[in-house]
Amino acid sequence: MKIVVIGSVAAGTSVAAKARRNTEEAEIVVYDQGKDISYSVCGIPYHIGGEVEELSALTPRNAAWFKKRYNVSVFTEHKVTHVDQAKKQLEVTDLVSGEKKLENYDVLVFATGASPFTPPPFNQKEYDNVFQVRNIQDARDIGAYSAKQPKKALIIGAGFIGLEMTEQLIHKGLEVTIVQLEDQVMPPMDADMTFRVEEHMRAKGVNLILSDTVKTIEGETSVERVITTNGVTIEPDIVILSAGVRPNTELAKEMGVELGASRAIAVNNKMQTNLPDVYAVGDVAESFSVITGKPIYRPLGSTANKMGRIAGDVITGGDLEHRGVLGTGIFRIFDLHVGQTGLTEKEAKKEGYDVEILYNIKPDHAEYLGGKELTIKALADKETGRILGAQAIGQGGVDKRIDVIATAITFKAKAEDLFHLDLAYAPPFATTKDPVLYTGMALDNALKRNPLLTPAELIRRQNSGETLQIIDTRSKKDFDKSHVKGAIHVPLGELRSSNAELDKDVVTVTYCNKGVTGNASQNLLLNYGFKKVYNLSGGNKNYQSYLKMLKSKSK
């Protein structure tokens, strides 16, 4: 059996390595049009910023290493230009010599990855100071240009790469401007969470321009000046395009491979396409949601490695299957860590779920040992209690909490299950009631007896004219500083003696600064016979953040 893999980064090399581990009988050949193999795309921003000193650290393996270790023939700077499925034959061009050859195969694997999207008007002309961050050659090119010591950078797009490059260029002393088409950074997340990121970025000196695009470019060989659709003029020394990627499906489409709803290659759980003996893995292939079962496209190196291993196993007689993804991701922006897993609020509602939403604001570990505030937004299905997703922002402990919740979602955990997890505790690492445990406890309470109300829902109800009895249970000092519109001040300590003055039949909302005292007040009123009592999720702190977001987006 002869296995030919097109592409040699995370997915392609994983196919070859797993296939060889399973059998010594197969001939395995890999073609890649680039110069480098098995490199870390995700590490490139950190090399550009100087955290990774040597570029070679991102390219630990080469073709010779693969041949010696796995007896796999890897041909770099070779482009597959045509596939004849009937003959099971490839046409391959040596990009250095220009020579062409025909190559037969028994099994073909597309690991052709994805290419960065070049948005207009940058797609009209090439400029010597415009770069993308997708491969090792891009890193070399940016490094070479950095010798000119640029002072001002323009970044187009605020996804993973855009934000990571922002952090690294700020660290290098550049002034950074981001232009983002959407009205928020990290569009896959909920806007009320990414607003916290936006505030942090602006505090660090980033010029963040949202809901805008570059309309015109001035300059012949270099971008000297750009003018946005909204009339903002920017004069960058260097431009980084990070406006997303598109799967490299052209060759596959040409031979009749079907694409999925996401426009990536459609595959089954064994990474097989619609054509016999043709597989697709990595950023060129479509995945599916663990929660909904529907196709999704989440091009990440971790998923690519997993897909490659599965395909390599299946091709050589194994029984591995792809079990889907949750879209779990994490990034660092200065001293803030931001992670997510599962469905966001907007995605859950689009899928038809009636969700309970919790904003949990707690220290990531004991405050007396330097614990810093961690905000978790978690969702549970009201019908089943199942955890659907979570987003977390903080200066530490984000990865731990997101990974625990991702694991729980994978095994279909309910909110109550989170509370019963036996998680590691010691003051340097967690609180006695870990943020994950508290998330499960509070969501379970909300599903059964203590409903939560988000700031968005509270404002919607107020704007609709609904009569609400809103009680601020904090100190007078905190109340005077800021409070929810229409709230009355009744501290928790006085609520037992004064609740008779309140109307038990009117929908009541309690709140404190972050949520705990509001919940205690909610319990008290329910025990005294109040018919419907909500606790404002995330308290006044979350409410004021939401108001600030609305104000900023309306400008």
Automatic annotation (TrEMBL):
One of its GO terms (molecular function) is oxidoreductase activity. SMART domains: RHOD. Gene3D superfamilies: FAD/NAD(P)-binding domain, Rhodanese-like domain. Residues 464-552 form the Rhodanese domain. InterPro entries: FAD-bd_OxRdtase (IPR050260), FAD/NAD-bd_sf (IPR036188), FAD/NAD-binding_dom (IPR023753), FAD/NAD-linked_Rdtase_dimer_sf (IPR016156), Pyr_nucl-diS_OxRdtase_dimer (IPR004099), Rhodanese-like_dom (IPR001763), Rhodanese-like_dom_sf (IPR036873). Its cofactor is FAD. Pfam families: Pyr_redox_2, Pyr_redox_dim, Rhodanese. Keywords: FAD, Flavoprotein, Oxidation, Oxidoreductase, Redox-active center. PANTHER family: NAD(P)H SULFUR OXIDOREDUCTASE (COA-DEPENDENT), PYRIDINE NUCLEOTIDE-DISULFIDE OXIDOREDUCTASE DOMAIN-CONTAINING. Belongs to the class-III pyridine nucleotide-disulfide oxidoreductase family. This is NADPH-dependent 2,4-dienoyl-CoA reductase, sulfur reductase.
